[in-house]
Amino acid sequence: MVGGGTAYGVAIGIRYKNWGISLARENENGESTVDNLDTVNGLATFDVRQPFKAKTWMLEIDHRRSINDHFDWISLVGIGHTEIILEDNQGVVIAVGNQGVIVPGTVIPIGPHSSESAIAYRLGGGIGYKIFDKLVFKTILQVTDIGTITRQIADAVNADGNRGVSTDSRVFSLSARLQYAF
Questions:
Q1: How far apart are CA 89 and CA 112, in angstroms?
Q2: Are 122 and 58 in contact (CB under 8 A)?
């Protein structure tokens, strides 16, 4: 699971009637959570949280449909490339199933420092408000699949007994965008 982050980006694109295409560069700082890990000795089950950064190039196609003179419905799809960077070599235990061996707040080694690349996908929809003829404020609810984060967690195994833990990373977000037509 991914959450607790902030993101920003910039895009450039073209519009023809109700259709638009844009290329965006986005940066995100977030946290990845891995649930239900077991210690190697099997004495405890725990969840761990680790910060990450993601850098994404996203190609989006959007369609807008007029509600009235000021409001539009907006739908979009996107495909892109994401680089996921796990900078910290440690994580923080946030919940424990069997008390006594590990306690919440324990810092555990995660490593080594890693970077992964993946294809990213996006689906979203929202509303646009025409501030002026050439300036539109958009609010879009979107889900972006940024790929899989894999890491080695010391003294922990997943349900398959492997030390390599993978997390499919989907980001649900509400974006606020300003679009200016030149």
A1: 6
A2: yes
Count other C-beta atoms under 10 Å from residue 136's C-beta.
20
Q: How far apart are CA 127 and CA 71, in angstroms?
A: 7
Give the residue among 13, 12, 52 at the shortest CA–CA distance from 149: 52
Round to whole Å and give the CA distance between 31 and 35.
Answer: 13
Between CA 112 and CA 95 the distance in angstroms is: 23
Q: Which residues pair with 71 in a beta bridge?
A: 129
Amino acid letter for position 175: S
Tokens of 68: 């009235």
Which amino acid is located at 173 in the chain? S
What's the pLDDT tens digit per position in 67-117?
A: 999 999 999 999 999 988 876 556 666 555 555 556 666 666 666 556 677
Tell me how far apart the alpha carbons of residues 67 and 57 are, in angstroms, rounded to a whole number.
Answer: 30
Q: Which residue reads 């004495």 in tokens? A: 43
Q: Please report the pLDDT score of residue 1 as a whole number.
A: 46
* Spatial contact of 50 and 37, defined as CB atoms under 8 Å apart: no
